[in-house]
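Predicting holo structure, DAU bound.
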Amino acid sequence: MITYLPTYNIFVTGGAGFIGSNFIFYMLDKHPEYRIVCIDKLTYAGNLSTLAAVMDNPNFRFCKVDICDRKAVYELFEEEHPDIVVNFAAESHVDRSIENPEVFLDTNIKGTAVMMDACRKYGIQRYHQVSTDEVYGDLPLDRPDLFFTEETPIHTSSPYSSSKAAADLLVLAYHRTYGLPVTISRCSNNYGPYHFPEKLIPLMIANALADKPLPVYGEGLNVRDWLYVEDHCKAIDLIIHKGRVGEVYNVGGHNEKTNIEIVKIICKELGKPESLITHVEDRKGHDMRYAIDPEKISSELGWYPETRFEDGIKKTIKWYLENRQWWETIISGEYQKYYEKMYGDREQINKK
Ligand code: NAD
Ligand code: DAU
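Done. Tokens:
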């Protein structure tokens, strides 16, 4: 008897960015029979060279489209008839949202609505929203017993997290009001290949390699729960296939580290002196601690993080050493203006 595997056409928005590109590689490898259509506006954070390895794959298509552009999105749905949409597309950097919130409202909220309107109009088996643990706000440092569960109230701090929370509420409203088959994942901090160099880990790797100061905000005692990006991709693959419609799944690895610990690990791995560490003015509204309780996704879907931080950070540093061209091209362009604006005038504070 011949058994046919179900095959899907999956729209991946934001697939030229960090997690979206890793998800595309993961899916084309794990499900070679699926078709993947990447929709990306190619903002400063999107990079077509990231997708070079899959551009010739006959099951892959790249479309330069803004998810806020309703006409272009509808045309693509008419042409491709996707079965599943995974929405990664977003403005994702907290510091940029503090400088200029507006584009965050456009892409993260209105763009999400456009994608879901298209799903309602043309029909879909699943709409998946890639969200963040930042929608829960932060936890106090003196209560290590507390974790974010799916029941933790939404309580945001930055324009970025507020825009992501607004999108989550819209997604749940489209499920209740229109019966759209949605799921949401709320993940902790990812790290790994193709992470844009404005974010903590790649920024510190790039600066350390150039013997430049390592700008730690405030005392560096803020805690993040780090997850290797491939583990996040596996979680989303499980949720879109087996997750229950209308549900939220928290994704995180019980791998909490202070920022200063992370920076010291990077110095040690690269053989660079800790004297490069420079404490600078803190981020406004800076969240103290994020920590995910992944019990629901573990017990319902059998997900667990497979990459230990000690291994993941070594793999990540190796990747940055072996792929210098990818990030050196980024930091030699427009990014320099951003870096000067964000760090040039930032007051240095003396903390050890
Ligand atoms: P990223 O900034 O690296 O990539 C975002 C991608 O979206 C880029 O390719 C960009 O060109 C594209 N994009 C932006 N605006 C667009 C628009 N209007 N239309 C189409 N494409 C657009 O982001 P990332 O770190 O890969 O994050 C991806 C998603 O995962 C985001 O939704 C983010 O909120 C969420 N998330 C990220 C993390 C993390 O640690 N990075 C953790 C949890 C959740
Ligand atoms: O928790 C998930 C979130 O993780 C995602 O939703 C966001 O898209 C993603 O950007 C990330 O947000 P963070 O703000 O936690 O990540 P970032 O890498 O910007 O900063 C991590 C920590 O490091 C944070 O406490 C601020 C600090 N930091 C960051 C930078 C860029 C520094 O001390 N110095 C820096 O130069």
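The mean pLDDT is 96.
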